[in-house]
Protein backbone atom coordinates (compact mmCIF):
# COMPACT_ATOMS: atom_id res chain seq x y z
CA UNK A 1 0.00 0.00 0.00
CA UNK A 2 1.21 3.52 -0.82
CA UNK A 3 0.67 5.88 2.10
CA UNK A 4 1.27 9.64 2.03
CA UNK A 5 1.66 11.48 5.30
CA UNK A 6 2.65 14.70 6.96
CA UNK A 7 6.45 14.79 6.75
CA UNK A 8 6.72 16.05 10.35
CA UNK A 9 5.33 12.68 11.54
CA UNK A 10 8.45 10.98 10.18
CA UNK A 11 10.74 13.40 12.01
CA UNK A 12 11.28 16.01 9.30
CA UNK A 13 11.82 19.38 10.98
CA UNK A 14 9.21 21.24 8.94
CA UNK A 15 6.80 22.44 11.66
CA UNK A 16 6.22 26.17 12.06
CA UNK A 17 8.60 26.20 15.06
CA UNK A 18 11.36 24.28 13.26
CA UNK A 19 10.71 20.97 15.03
CA UNK A 20 8.74 17.84 14.13
CA UNK A 21 5.98 15.52 15.37
CA UNK A 22 7.85 12.22 15.06
CA UNK A 23 5.47 9.34 15.78
CA UNK A 24 7.21 6.04 16.57
CA UNK A 25 3.96 4.02 16.39
CA UNK A 26 3.33 5.32 12.88
CA UNK A 27 6.95 4.83 11.78
CA UNK A 28 6.79 1.20 12.93
CA UNK A 29 3.43 0.67 11.22
CA UNK A 30 4.75 2.05 7.92
CA UNK A 31 7.51 -0.55 7.60
CA UNK A 32 6.76 -2.52 4.46
CA UNK A 33 4.65 0.25 2.90
CA UNK A 34 5.71 2.72 0.26
CA UNK A 35 5.75 6.10 2.03
CA UNK A 36 5.32 9.57 0.52
CA UNK A 37 6.21 12.31 3.05
CA UNK A 38 4.59 15.69 2.33
CA UNK A 39 4.62 19.13 3.94
CA UNK A 40 2.13 21.37 2.12
CA UNK A 41 3.40 24.47 3.93
CA UNK A 42 6.98 23.95 2.73
CA UNK A 43 5.68 23.06 -0.76
CA UNK A 44 3.86 26.41 -0.69
CA UNK A 45 7.16 28.20 -0.20
CA UNK A 46 6.88 28.96 3.52
CA UNK A 47 10.11 28.99 5.54
CA UNK A 48 11.07 26.84 8.53
CA UNK A 49 10.66 28.17 11.13
CA UNK A 50 7.70 30.47 10.42
CA UNK A 51 5.10 32.40 12.35
CA UNK A 52 2.22 30.29 13.72
CA UNK A 53 -1.00 30.65 11.75
CA UNK A 54 -4.65 29.67 12.07
CA UNK A 55 -7.63 29.72 9.77
CA UNK A 56 -9.58 32.90 10.53
CA UNK A 57 -12.93 32.74 8.79
CA UNK A 58 -11.80 31.13 5.56
CA UNK A 59 -8.38 32.78 5.34
CA UNK A 60 -5.08 31.47 6.76
CA UNK A 61 -3.60 34.30 8.84
CA UNK A 62 -0.71 35.04 11.17
CA UNK A 63 -1.50 36.37 14.64
CA UNK A 64 -0.80 39.92 13.37
CA UNK A 65 -3.57 39.49 10.78
CA UNK A 66 -1.28 39.11 7.78
CA UNK A 67 -2.49 36.56 5.24
CA UNK A 68 -0.48 33.52 4.17
CA UNK A 69 -3.53 32.03 2.49
CA UNK A 70 -2.07 32.02 -1.03
CA UNK A 71 0.99 30.03 0.11
CA UNK A 72 -1.18 27.54 2.00
CA UNK A 73 -3.47 26.99 -0.98
CA UNK A 74 -0.58 26.69 -3.45
CA UNK A 75 1.16 24.22 -1.13
CA UNK A 76 -2.02 22.19 -0.70
CA UNK A 77 -2.43 21.99 -4.48
CA UNK A 78 1.22 20.94 -4.95
CA UNK A 79 0.84 18.33 -2.20
CA UNK A 80 -2.36 17.02 -3.80
CA UNK A 81 -0.54 16.59 -7.11
CA UNK A 82 2.26 14.72 -5.32
CA UNK A 83 -0.28 12.40 -3.65
CA UNK A 84 -2.01 11.72 -6.96
CA UNK A 85 1.26 11.16 -8.85
CA UNK A 86 2.39 8.65 -6.23
CA UNK A 87 -0.93 6.80 -6.35
CA UNK A 88 -1.31 7.06 -2.58
CA UNK A 89 -4.22 5.01 -1.28
CA UNK A 90 -4.32 6.71 2.13
CA UNK A 91 -3.09 10.00 3.57
CA UNK A 92 -2.29 10.30 7.30
CA UNK A 93 -2.09 13.88 8.55
CA UNK A 94 -0.93 15.78 11.64
CA UNK A 95 -3.69 16.73 14.06
CA UNK A 96 -5.08 20.27 14.39
CA UNK A 97 -2.83 21.83 11.74
CA UNK A 98 -4.18 24.65 9.54
CA UNK A 99 -2.89 22.59 6.60
CA UNK A 100 -3.36 19.02 7.74
CA UNK A 101 -5.95 18.99 10.53
CA UNK A 102 -8.73 16.47 9.85
CA UNK A 103 -12.03 17.17 11.57
CA UNK A 104 -10.54 19.48 14.22
CA UNK A 105 -8.42 22.63 13.87
CA UNK A 106 -7.60 25.67 15.98
CA UNK A 107 -10.45 28.19 15.91
CA UNK A 108 -8.60 31.26 14.60
CA UNK A 109 -8.36 33.09 17.94
CA UNK A 110 -4.78 31.99 18.71
CA UNK A 111 -5.89 30.86 22.17
CA UNK A 112 -5.39 27.11 21.68
CA UNK A 113 -9.15 26.62 21.34
CA UNK A 114 -10.22 23.83 19.00
CA UNK A 115 -13.20 23.77 16.67
CA UNK A 116 -14.68 21.42 14.08
CA UNK A 117 -13.11 21.83 10.67
CA UNK A 118 -10.40 20.71 8.29
CA UNK A 119 -7.08 22.25 7.34
CA UNK A 120 -6.60 23.52 3.78
CA UNK A 121 -4.80 20.39 2.52
CA UNK A 122 -7.10 17.97 4.35
CA UNK A 123 -10.16 19.67 2.84
CA UNK A 124 -8.64 19.51 -0.64
CA UNK A 125 -7.93 15.79 -0.27
CA UNK A 126 -11.53 15.17 0.80
CA UNK A 127 -12.85 17.25 -2.13
CA UNK A 128 -10.83 14.98 -4.43
CA UNK A 129 -12.11 11.75 -2.87
CA UNK A 130 -8.75 10.74 -1.39
CA UNK A 131 -8.99 8.82 1.90
CA UNK A 132 -7.53 10.89 4.73
CA UNK A 133 -7.23 10.28 8.47
CA UNK A 134 -5.87 12.21 11.43
CA UNK A 135 -2.77 10.60 12.97
CA UNK A 136 -4.37 10.37 16.43
CA UNK A 137 -7.43 8.60 15.00
CA UNK A 138 -5.19 6.33 12.92
CA UNK A 139 -3.09 5.41 15.95
CA UNK A 140 -6.18 4.80 18.08
CA UNK A 141 -7.81 2.67 15.38
CA UNK A 142 -4.71 0.56 14.73
CA UNK A 143 -3.67 0.21 18.38
CA UNK A 144 -7.18 -1.04 19.16
CA UNK A 145 -7.00 -3.48 16.24
CA UNK A 146 -3.63 -4.80 17.41
CA UNK A 147 -5.08 -5.88 20.74
CA UNK A 148 -8.01 -7.79 19.23
Task: Outline the structure in words.
The protein is of the alpha/beta class and 148 residues long. It has one domain: Rossmann fold. It contains five helices and eight strands; from the N terminus they run βαβαββαβββαβα. Helix 3 (69-86) crosses helix 4 (120-127). The longest helix is centred in the middle third of the chain and has 18 residues, at 69-86. The chain is globular and about 45 Å long. The mean pLDDT is 95.
| Sequence of strands across the biggest β-sheet | 2-1-5-8
Largest sheet: 4 strands, parallel
Supply Rg: 15 Å
Characterize the overall form. globular
The number of distinct β-strands equals: 8
SS-based structural class? alpha/beta
Approximate strand percentage: 15-25%
Number of domains: 1
Which series of helices and strands comes N to C? EHEHEEHEEEHEH
**Helix proportion of residues, in percent?**
25-40%
CATH class: Alpha Beta
At the fold tier of CATH, the topology name is Rossmann fold
> How many helical elements?
5
Mean pLDDT, rounded to whole units? 95
Q: What is the annotated CATH architecture? A: 3-Layer(aba) Sandwich
Tell me the distance between the termini.
Answer: 22 Å
Uncertain parts: none
Amino acid sequence: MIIALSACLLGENCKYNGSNNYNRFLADYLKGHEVVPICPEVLGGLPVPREPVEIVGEVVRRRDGGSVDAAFRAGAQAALEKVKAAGAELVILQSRSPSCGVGTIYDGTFTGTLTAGDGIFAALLKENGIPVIDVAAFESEHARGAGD
